[in-house]
Amino acid sequence: MKRSAIAILVTLLSALVACGGSNSNMDNVNGNWTAALTDTSAGMQFAFTTSLTQGSGNNLNIVNFKFTTEGSCFTTPTTQTGSFVLAGNFNGKVTGQFQMTVSTQFPSDNNVLTLNGEVSGNAITGTWTLAGGSGCTGGGAFTMNRG
Predict the structure, then answer these.
(1) Domains of the chain: residue spans and CATH
(2) pLDDT in single tens digits along all 147 residues of the chain
(3) Residue 147 contacts by C-beta under 8 Å, 6 or more apart in sequence?
């Protein structure tokens, strides 16, 4: 009887381990991210680093945002807003919809960069658009990687 109980307990524990425990880096978008934004010809347009943490509801807290590319579209301070809608956590791989906006603070939110994509584990991929002043328009694809 004791051996049967131990065998059942070992089987249950093995099943729980196989299902995986919660990994804080995989069941949300929290962490440091590096982004590369390319135009429709696959030419690098923008790159940035940032730290994301999931706030209340679908809100994202975006801190330590920094463009790592030179350019005239974002020379003034910027504001960043974003959202993440969790679709699921399948075998430790989070999925969901991602949206982020980067805006110049003045003059009057002149240049606005919008990213829309899909989160899949440690990567976010999607499309971006830039609307703004002279020479600050365009679009293409982006990839963000955690790490």
Answers:
(1) 23-146 (2.40.128.120)
(2) 555 444 443 343 333 333 433 444 446 789 999 999 999 999 999 999 999 998 888 899 999 999 999 888 998 889 999 999 888 776 667 789 999 999 998 766 689 999 999 999 899 999 999 999 888 999 999 999 998
(3) 31, 32, 34, 122
